[in-house]
UniProtKB/TrEMBL annotation:
It comes from the Eukaryota. The gene is BTBD7. Coiled coil: none annotated. This is BTB/POZ domain-containing protein 7. Transmembrane segments: none annotated. InterPro entries: BACK, BTB/POZ_dom, Btbd7, SKP1/BTB/POZ_sf. It comes from Hydra vulgaris.
Length: 690
């Protein structure tokens, strides 16, 4: 198992061969296949997005409509228009926030790993000679992917093969692109696709990479590695023995060393360390693994992901699991979490992403608490999706005693601080008080068991809770309630809170909609009034929809309304110097991240990616609502650093603390995908030429 020597590759060919972009040739059958594959991926992402983007169910919608109508009935159309504009701006930020929360690195995909396998020449077992130039390749990849190379290599045992130039009359650079396309299924060279189309009968029309690797895994053709478990080990997952299929303790999996090493850097290092000093190796190699590391039921799941980027648990469950409906959702999530940790240990990003998608798609009232606790440590992506789910489904979730009694204060505070929490302020206040009552009840009676069998009444017995203890507990959260935006007249919840001394305020929110305060209620809702009591409204969808309807009704009634740009003197907006750069005081308080450890190319690609997003039609539309809105720009910057797999704090460092550095790259062309440029720059690509 020798390691071929690597030679430097010229920059032009390196960039060209590493750029994984689909060609734009609609007439090509290959392109159509690739488009179908990408469409399936987009549909899968869309289904997850649809689940997480659900708007509030029509709970008390008529009540919310009446509340907002009572608030604005005496407002002028200009004031209503200003509030509507604020809501539209918040809607834009909400959409961009969802996109930034959904962003994550795409490193470690099957295509990227196979592209890197070709250029690194790791575990290459065959040398192809083409036009007096030698190329290190992997026989198993070529014969499983291409009919032409299969006919040449299948019966040849020696490692040096000369290719007939009469069949493939292309130059060296195109030949490299051809082999790269066979490995990863992508190319930006349309000439190669035309050559393959012309030679379709002899060369063989390529299937998708995933399909070919699935066939290879099932056929076990020319395997050189056997994975088995150590003798005498017992299954470590007895807790799931009732729902998992029984597995043979002598289970062995035949696979291919080069493919396994290309997908798992951990296993690659393991084999290099174990066999680095051995000149002669016994084929196939034997790898004995510990059931503590990769439990036996999950080995097949791991191997499926290694070979064709599919993560599915359907094959490991027995009929009893599929027949039963109780707790299936939670069991599915728990197993996905365990497989995610296996992916972390083996360093297989695609396995981790697949488990994240499974966890997110199984978000529900029963699984949310466990997902929040787990993801806050293990997966930032899942945590962002779980918080999003909690924001969207806050009202129905808080009606569950089990949920409120088990919800952590950290997660509760996270959603309460959001401008996009889908709940009215009265419901938020009531949920906070109920949550605090549960916390006090738990601290005073440790024997309380927090299970789904909790009593159905919404809170513990109030006579066991003193006002002093409740006041102290509520004080740390009540600041998140926008009390002046409680629209319920004579609110019992607000009145009781004031009587118990839980709130300290110079006015009650009920006064805002009373006859005495009705004319001045705009100061709490409209920023342009420049009142000290102004509070930014939450983007609560029922309020937003009703405001749009009211505005259209007013327009119909009065066609001679004033424009937003021609406001009365009391509503003239004072221009604010909002920029994308932080102030000097903000810079001093920001955490320091050494961005100079990043290469200039990485920073350039990140800045270019920001420019691509900023110039998109969607973002330009949003910026017309609020040209200086720093929140829109901040969400785009967060999306960029997450796509490049860096901490969120890096956005402040690159885009705010060092604006001069950003300006150096303002004229970067954006013809190609920046993420593809990042993949090319991030991989240590070497020439396959000797």
């Amino acid at each position: 198992m020798g390691h071929a020597q690597s030679a430097a590759f010229n920059d032009k060919n390196q960039l060209k061969s590493s750029d994984l972009i689909l060609p734009h040739d609609d007439s090509s059958k290959l392109v159509e296949k690739e488009k179908k594959k990408q469409s399936k991926k987009l549909l899968k992402q869309g289904s997850i997005r649809k689940k997480l983007s659900r708007t509030l169910r029509p709970i008390k919608s008529s009540l919310y409509s009446k509340q907002i109508r009572d608030l604005v009935q005496s407002w002028s159309i200009t004031e209503i228009q200003l509030l509507l504009k604020k809501y539209e701006t918040l809607e834009a930020v909400r959409e961009l926030k969802f996109l930034s929360d959904s962003a994550r690195s795409i490193n470690g995909s099957l295509q990227n790993d196979f592209c890197q396998l070709f250029y690194s020449k790791h575990q290459a077992d065959t040398i192809i000679e083409y036009k007096d130039t030698l190329f290190h390749v992997h026989k198993i990849v070529l014969i499983s992917r291409c009919q032409y190379f299969r006919s040449i290599l299948i019966d040849i045992n020696h490692s040096h093969v000369k290719i007939d130039c009469d069949v493939l009359d292309v130059n060296i650079s195109d030949f490299i692109d051809l082999i790269s396309y066979i490995y990863c299924g992508y190319t930006n060279n349309n000439e190669i696709l035309k050559t393959i189309s012309v030679l379709e009968e002899k060369f063989g029309l390529l299937n998708t990479l995933e399909n070919d690797m699935q066939k290879l895994f099932n056929s076990k053709e020319r395997t050189d590695l056997v994975i088995s478990y150590r003798n005498g080990q017992k299954n470590m997952f007895c807790e799931y023995s009732e729902v998992l299929k029984p597995f043979d303790p002598t289970l062995k999996v035949d696979c291919h060393l080069s493919i396994v090493c290309s997908r798992s850097p951990f296993l690659k290092r393991l084999f290099e360390t174990k066999y680095c000093n051995q000149t002669e190796l016994t084929i196939p190699l034997l790898l004995e693994i510990n059931d503590h590391i990769v439990p036996q039921p999950f080995l097949h799941v791991v191997m499926e992901c290694i070979y064709f980027d599919q993560v599915s648990f359907n094959s490991i469950f027995n009929e009893k699991f599929h027949e039963s409906c109780n707790n299936n959702n939670l069991v599915y999530v728990e197993i996905a979490m365990k497989v995610f940790e296996i992916g972390q240990f083996l360093e297989i990003p695609s396995l981790m992403r697949g488990c994240e998608d499974i966890i997110v798609s199984n978000l529900s009232a029963t699984s949310l608490i466990k997902i929040l606790e787990w993801s806050s440590i293990d997966s930032k992506y899942v945590y962002r999706q779980a918080i999003h789910f909690l924001r969207e489904e806050f009202i129905p979730l808080c009606k569950s005693s089990f949920f409120l009694a088990n919800l952590s204060k950290i997660h509760l505070l996270k959603v309460l601080e959001s401008d996009f929490l889908q709940a009215d302020e009265e419901t938020i206040l009531d949920s906070i008080i109920t949550w605090c009552e549960w916390e006090i009840a738990k601290s005073g009676n440790p024997t309380i068991i927090l299970t789904k069998s909790l009593p159905r009444h919404p809170c513990p017995k109030r006579y066991n809770i003193t006002n002093d203890a409740l006041r102290e507990m509520v004080s740390s959260l009540v600041g998140c309630v926008r009390l002046s935006h409680i629209l319920t007249q004579n609110s019992v919840i607000l009145s009781n809170a004031c009587q118990q001394g839980l709130l300290q305020m110079p006015f009650t929110a009920c006064d805002v909609v009373s006859s005495e305060k009705k004319l001045s209620s705009t100061v709490y809702w409209i920023e342009e009034m420049h009142h000290s009591d102004y509070v930014k409204p939450r983007f609560f969808i029922p309020y937003f929809n009703e405001i749009k309807l009211i505005y259209q009704e007013r327009l119909t009634e009065n066609k001679n309304t004033c424009d937003v740009n021609n406001l009365p003197s009391t509503l003239v907006e004072i221009p604010l110097s909002i920029t994308t750069c932080a102030t000097s005081d903000e810079r001093q308080s920001m955490p320091l991240v050494d961005i100079f450890k990043l290469s200039e190319d990485v920073i350039k690609n990140m800045v270019t990616r920001q420019k691509e997003l900023m110039s998109s039609e969607q973002v330009l539309k949003y910026l017309t609502l609020a040209p200086d809105n720093v929140e829109i720009i901040a969400e785009i910057q967060l999306r960029v650093v997450r796509e490049f797999d860096y901490p969120d704090e890096l956005a402040n460092e690159i885009f705010q603390q060092y604006p001069d550095l950003v300006e150096n790259f303002t004229n970067i062309p954006t013809k190609r995908s920046t993420l593809s440029m990042h993949r090319a720059a991030g991989n240590d690509c070497f020439s396959p030429i000797l």
